[in-house]
Write a structure and sequence with these properties.
heterodimer; A: mainly beta; 8-stranded antiparallel β-sheet; 8 strands; globular; B: alpha+beta; 3 strands; about 20% helix; about 25% strand
Chain lengths: ~140, ~55
């Protein structure tokens, strides 16, 4: 298994390839920890996994042209639309065991573009998994 | 099946800008893509919400 530097990642939102406008991706999947501890000799706690919250946070460059970042994301947020997102490490090669693709149906629950004078216009957008299938890595 | 052309500046559904392709999208996805300028319809009618599919 080789290490990698992220160059060729594929980021697709609602079928639009926004890879060139994205510069970081962070997947988060966390299950609630339910304490089901009973009396025991060691005093150790016992846990079960509860509900799972999943999201993907992507940092985009602000771009306001036709079919670009804002034109893609803002209507999804404004209209509370479910959309499918895709992310995989290498967009130049097909999905496979060494190039797994994260995919799932999400909503853009918060949307907050902004800008700072003299700096690259970037902002993070969180995509929250919004159906029972959740966000999963597929390899085929 | 509808024929679309990618009119946006980036690829759409793995089709490059300027490329024509056939697909059968649901009306909501088609509507969003057309309105944002990602694609245009080359052949076939734009789907209407609530219309019966044949």
């Amino acid at each position: 298994m080789s290490k990698r530097v992220a160059f060729k990642d594929l980021v697709k939102v609602d079928l639009v390839d926004l890879s060139t406008f994205a510069r970081s991706v962070r997947f988060n999947s966390a299950s609630e920890r339910i304490d089901v501890s009973g009396f025991n000799a060691t005093g150790s706690n016992e846990y079960l996994a509860g509900t799972t919250e999943q999201s993907v946070t992507i940092e985009f460059y602000g771009s306001y042209g036709t079919g670009e970042v804002h034109a893609t994301l803002y209507p999804l947020h404004k209209n509370r639309t479910n959309c499918v997102i895709h992310w995989r490490p290498d967009g130049t090669t097909p999905v496979g065991p060494t190039n797994p693709e994260l995919t799932g149906t999400c909503q853009v629950l918060t949307y907050g573009p902004g800008a700072t004078r003299g700096e690259a216009d970037t902002y993070e957008v969180e995509f929250t998994a919004s159906d029972p299938a959740g966000l999963t890595f597929v390899t085929a | 099946m509808t024929t679309y052309k990618v009119t946006g500046p980036v690829a759409f559904d793995d089709h490059e800008p300027g490329e024509e392709f056939d697909a059968d999208y649901d009306e909501d996805l088609e509507s969003r893509a057309v309105e944002r300028g990602s694609i245009t319809i080359v052949k076939g009618n734009r789907k209407k919400k609530g219309a019966d599919e044949e």
